[in-house]
């Protein structure tokens, strides 16, 4: 699946020199973008030539490539495949100077990574107790590991008794 990952609509300095859109290939194979289209709020389109995105990689489209002038205010970027089917969309209400707009699905990944680091810091600084519900997956895993140990031990004991 190809996603619009992020955009820089309001770069520091002249917009035309720094604006970009990044696409991400979440699929397991390389993807050809031949005849795909990105359309902005005003209806202006960029039609892809023979671009290909390798599996797990990004493709950055600069203003100089697309000639799409991204709004610093409300904007919707829509990605269509070569059959005209909407594949993805990125919307934002405004962009501060230098702010990269990250698609919500990628914000979740960023938050999970930040939460994982936070959880590790909390464990190492002994702040587990006190209503910290962010650690429930870790605690559940620990409980399941302990239960697996008890069950495995019981089977081992039973097998030894039968021998």
UniProtKB/TrEMBL annotation:
Pfam families xref list = LTD
LTD domain sequence ranges: 1-94
Q: GTP-binding as a keyword?
A: no
Which Gene3D superfamilies would you find in this protein's record? Answer: Lamin Tail domain
Indicate the transmembrane segments per the record: 135-156
Highest rank taxon of the organism? Bacteria
Q: Which UniProt keywords apply?
A: Membrane, Transmembrane, Transmembrane helix
Q: What is this protein called?
A: LTD domain-containing protein
């Amino acid at each position: 699946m190809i996603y619009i990952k992020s955009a820089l609509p309001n770069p520091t300095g002249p917009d035309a020199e720094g604006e970009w859109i990044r696409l991400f290939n979440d699929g397991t194979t390389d993807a050809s973008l031949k005849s795909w289209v990105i359309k902005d709020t005003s209806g202006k389109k960029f039609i892809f030539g023979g671009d290909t995105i390798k599996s797990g990689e990004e493709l950055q489209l600069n203003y100089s490539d697309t000639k799409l002038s991204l709004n610093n205010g409300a904007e919707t970027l829509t990605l269509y495949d070569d059959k005209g089917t909407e594949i993805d969309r990125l919307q934002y209400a405004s962009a501060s100077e230098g702010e990269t707009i990250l698609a919500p699905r990628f914000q979740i990944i960023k938050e999970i990574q930040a939460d994982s680091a936070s959880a590790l810091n909390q464990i190492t600084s002994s702040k587990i107790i006190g209503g910290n519900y962010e650690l429930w997956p870790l605690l559940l895993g620990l409980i399941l590991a302990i239960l697996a140990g008890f069950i495995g031990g019981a089977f081992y004991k039973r097998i030894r008794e039968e021998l």
